[in-house]
Fold this sequence. Notes:
Strands 4-3-2-1-5 form a five-stranded antiparallel β-sheet, covered by helices on one side. The chain is globular, with a radius of gyration of 17 Å. A hairpin with an 8-residue loop joins strand 3 and strand 4 (about 145-150). The protein is about 40% helix and about 10% strand. By secondary structure, it is of the alpha+beta class. Residues about 1-15 and about 170-180 have low confidence and may be disordered. It has helices at about 1-20, 20-35, 40-60, 70-75, 85-95, 165-170, 195-200, and strands at about 105-110, 120-125, 135-140, 145-150, 190-195.
Amino acid sequence: MIRTLVFIIAFSLVSAVLAKDEKSITKLRDALVALAPDVDPGEAELLSVTAHATSRSLAREYHLAWSPIFQNFLIQIGRRQRGWCGHYTRDIGEHLKELKLKTLVLHWGAAFAGTDDESNCLVVTARNQPFEDGIVLDGWRQGGRLFWSAVKKDHEYDLAQDAALRRTRSSELFRPQRPDHQPDHYGITTWKEDPLYTAWLQDYTHASQWQWQTTAR
């Protein structure tokens, strides 16, 4: 009886989370299917649901406070253990690895690697498709509400978007700010594939006892 009650409560919580993201889940599924003719729609649906639900769950697990930038500050002063972008990337990636995808491929993306402005994300492509043609999955940017975008359309990580401007926009009063003027976009992404971490994502045969470590901290 107790187990049944726990299952019902857990199912209700998951359903409530998915209801918040229903439109985004559907749109991401459609975007994944559109990557290539051989992408399995069922696999795309499963990936989208898993990524959205996991991202929300991680924000609770990390005890997200106020905003992603403020969470970073709490980690730096020792008040939180997890919640950087790389933690979201690693932990969402671990759940997606469990799906053992056949028509979609996981990649690890890094921008400004090795600097204080380092960012990490997942990128999903169809089989034999270039990294730059994939779709960004970022659980950190919106505090657990999954952000996704085509790599080349992720304007916040366009070469024209100055890193200092991104920090200012995100850090003022620890809240995301929208600038009065969006800079021009070159259509050249700052996201680059990290081959080592990508190899981990694509290895379905070994246990996932691996933790991301930023080179900047």
